[in-house]
Amino acid sequence: MLMRTDPFRELDRLAQQLMGPGTWSRPSPMPMDAHREGDQYVVAFDIPGVSADAIDIDVERNMLTVKAERRPVTKADDVQMELSERPLGIFSRQIVLADTLDTEHIQADYDAGVLTLRIPITERAKPRKIAIGVGGGRKEISG
What pLDDT is stored for residue 1 in this prediction? Predict the structure, then answer.
């Protein structure tokens, strides 16, 4: 027998039951973190219990879409489920990417239930020095 200690867990379970599992037309959101690390943006999505082949990453223009599906685990006939709190169904997240990001060279890694995307910053968006000519000389941009 499993004991629960979180008084709000039952409310979360009820809300999930009312809304139902995520579907392709109405996916559930997935939590994410995003930060800049040197010359790239790093975005991490929490999708534990999802196999790598059930994750779909698309980029169209500047819209990044990540979809994942957590499928039910097949059980033997003599197994009786006592408690089921892990959500199943479709999870999705869309992010609008800035024009300063290089969508052609996105790297994706999936480890321990975390999908990590590394998106490089384009060369034209990086800071650069501009040389100043003296007395009508030529001006040069370096970078």
Answer: 38
The predicted pLDDT at position 25 comes to 59
Whether 91 and 30 have beta carbons less than 8 Å apart is answered as yes
Question: What is the DSSP-derived secondary structure letter of residue 27?
Answer: P
* Cα diameter, the chain: 89
**Residue 17, φ and ψ in degrees, nearest 5:** -65, -40
CA angle 69–72–75, rounded 5-degree value: 155
In whole angstroms, how far apart are CA 14 and each of 73, 88, 124?
A: 22, 15, 50
Alpha-carbon gap, residue 114 to 90, rounded angstroms = 16
Residues of the chain with confidence (pLDDT) below 70? 1-27, 125-126, 136-143
Distances (CA, A) of 27 to 12, 67, 79, 130, 140: 17, 8, 29, 48, 51
